[in-house]
Amino acid sequence: MSNIQLIIEERAANIGNFLVGRLLPFREKRMVGPFIFIDHMGPTKMSERENFDVQPHPHIGLSTLTFLFEGSIMHRDSIGSEIEIKPGEVNWMTAGKGIVHSERTPEYLRHSEKHMHGLQIWVALPKELENMEPNFAHVDKDHIPYWMEGDVSYKLIAGEAFGRRSPVPVYSKLYMLEIKSSTRQTISIGHELYGESGLYILEGAVENDGNRYEPKQILVAKESKLCSFTIEAHTTVYLFGGEPFPEERFIDWNFVSSSKETLVAARQNWIDQRFPKINGDDIEFVPYPTRIKP
């Protein structure tokens, strides 16, 4: 019997002036471990007249993980962080009780052709930390654990697995791994995993139980400890998951919480502009979306 419980296909979603492929949440699977939201950005080419501009917007109750394959994003937030993220680096912003951030093409690239490709991920916080003070961490690509096993390379982007720990400061038991192979291989790594597991195919293909799966899909395992698949040559996948929380999580726009009342308060605080401002990027903002009933 196959160990695949669910196959999630990318669905188009607009995040302002940029179209992404949305993977999580999904109606049949709201979370995989603590991972509650995944967008695949690009790949796309932008002209000298086009730029990536996500205006200031708020978050609560989660950590964001930005991981680029191509391109560059200037991150600014309301606790004073201002840093450019480049391919292979990790931006990890923890919203806690509330933070505002913007993501834009850096000034030196705004008038030239550019590419953008990456993953934007939300990781829900444990209930007892949902109201923590916000913080920010940036981890250089050279500090991400990396190792080879034959023709297969592994990179531990966040969390704990394979007896290793990423320096990204996570708040629950989780993992996010990059796996690349230059040749066709059978990979059996379930004994290294825990909790729930999802496998995102970026390029190439994988096989499981006689079925072939290609990019822009998440394969959700029935049992992480039985995780085994055949990876084709020149394939890159991202394996993510971890221990699920005992409480349900709710999403309202950019807000995540175990309490619906907290979401209502956050929404009103943003409408009333009671969230903190970003120094140097405090003119524009993303308004709370108006939902028009049919």
Brief descriptors of the model:
seven-stranded antiparallel sheet; mainly beta; eight-stranded antiparallel sheet; 25 strands; single chain; 4% helix
The portion of residues forming beta strands comes to: over 45%
Binned, the helix content reads: under 10%
Shape designation = globular
How would you state the average pLDDT, rounded?
A: 92
Order of helices and strands: EEEEEEEEEEEEEEEEEEEEEEEEEH
Largest sheet properties: 8 strands, antiparallel
If you compute it from the alpha carbons, what radius of gyration comes out, rounded to the nearest whole angstrom? Answer: 19 Å
How far apart are the first and last residues' alpha carbons, in Å?
44 Å
Q: Helices and strands: which structural class?
A: mainly beta
Low-confidence stretches: none
Question: Quick gist of this model?
Answer:
This protein is mostly beta strands.
Written description of the protein model:
With about 290 residues, this protein is mainly β. It has 1 helix and 25 strands. The chain has one helix at about 260-270; strands spanning about 5-10, 10-15, 20-25, 35-45, 55-60, 60-70, 75, 80-85, 90-95, 100-105, 115-125, 135-140, 145-150, 150-160, 165, 175-180, 185-190, 195-205, 205-210, 210-215, 215-220, 230, 235-240, 250, 255. Strands 1, 13, 14, 15, 16, 18, 21 and 23 form an 8-stranded antiparallel beta sheet that branches. A hairpin with a 4-residue loop joins strand 2 (about 10-15) and strand 3. The protein is globular. The protein starts with a strand and ends in a 23-residue tail after the last helix. The model has no long low-confidence stretch (mean pLDDT about 90).
